[in-house]
Amino acid sequence: MTVLDLARLGSVRTDWSLDEARAVHTAPFSDLLFHAQRVHRTHFAPNRVQVSTLLSVKTGACPEDCKYCPQSVRYETGVEREELLQLDQVVDAARAAKAQGATRFCMGAAYRSPKPKQLAQIKRMVSEVRALGLETCATVGMLTREQACELRDAGLDYYNHNLDTSRDYYGEIVTTRTYDDRLETLQAVRDAGINVCCGGILGMGESEQDRIALLHTLATLPRHPESVPINQLVQVPGTPLHGLARLDPLELVRAIATARLLMPRSYVRLSAGRSDMDDATQALCFLAGANSIFYGDRLLTTPNPGRSQDQQLFERLGLEVERSLPAEG
Length: 329
Ligand code: SAM
Ligand code: DTB
Ligand code: SF4
What we know:
The protein is an alpha/beta fold. The protein is 38% helix and 14% strand. It has helices at residues 18-25, 29-43, 87-99, 116-131, 145-154, 167-170, 179-192, 208-219, 249-262, 279-287, 307-317; strands at 48-58, 104-109, 135-139, 158-160, 195-197, 200-202, 227-232, 267-270, 292-294, 320-321. Helix 1 crosses helix 8 (208-219), helix 2 (29-43) crosses helix 9 (249-262) and helix 4 runs parallel beside helix 5. The mean pLDDT is 94. Bound molecules: S-adenosylmethionine, 6-(5-methyl-2-OXO-imidazolidin-4-yl)-hexanoic acid and iron/sulfur cluster (SF4). S-adenosylmethionine (SAM) is lined by residues 62, 68-69, 71, 108, 110-111, 139, 141, 161-162, 164, 201, 231, 233-234, 236, 272, 300.
């Protein structure tokens, strides 16, 4: 390799060049996986997976135009508009998720950004879920610095806000908010002292260069996101991206391995899209350094493999669910 020796990778850096990121992503597959696994083992227990459970606390009728999303009001996808859930509905779902082994509960809302009354209700949800002994995560759209501080004070541990794709390709996917809007929200969340959960979606018709650029942007943020969700597009009829050619599964594995090598201490989550993957692909993703999944039979509005299916997969692979909450930091 000309610009980079994979065998020397393993330390946490935020000064990656795009050439270095490309050299990692395009390395011979076995070298890439070998070194991703090597680096994974220096920072994490090799056979342990963190599990988060998702709940859509406000579904549908979103004003944004994200071309992948079944919840945008602009596309006929059959997703029914629902009001914000009641507090007790959310707490019941969180209790059930905890009983089933989740350590983190992530509440998603189909908002561009929350209004003051909505934020007040979400803060109550966060506080009550945290009181159950779960880590809390929310993804409710763009936040101001003040809103981020309010959520932190309510007990929010993580905020999910994805970059989705590369800066260059982004305009093909979303026009109602900019890449810089997203980066600003991420900075507000970081400055508030909330852990950052930030990743993207693969399989939206982007090029390999776009996937590399997305991973490079994530890995050169002032601090790496603590969680990096790598979603494979869930193709929903009615959305503009429905019917696209499927991503080569080995490209997904490459992206996970690259995330592991560029962000060695971050949890890399094999996120949406697992219902469309076979067990061998998922096994390769874990080998490549994925160490987190969404657990439970629904994502936000689309299906996820059921718990029993995941338990079988974990047994086949000798994976165990991380029971204790990881140390802060
Ligand atoms: N409305 C908020 C926002 O977008 O900021 C939060 C909820 S939104 C559904 C959270 C993330 O889910 C999106 O940023 C996107 O990365 C992911 N997502 C949405 N639809 C998806 C799909 N069909 N396939 C894969 N990921 C998807
Ligand atoms: C993330 O990166 N993936 C999750 C979570 N963060 C909020 C969402 C996936 C949504 C898939 C489509 C749906 O179920 O509506
Ligand atoms: Fe709305 Fe979020 Fe879906 Fe975009 S991804 S349409 S902001 S719910």
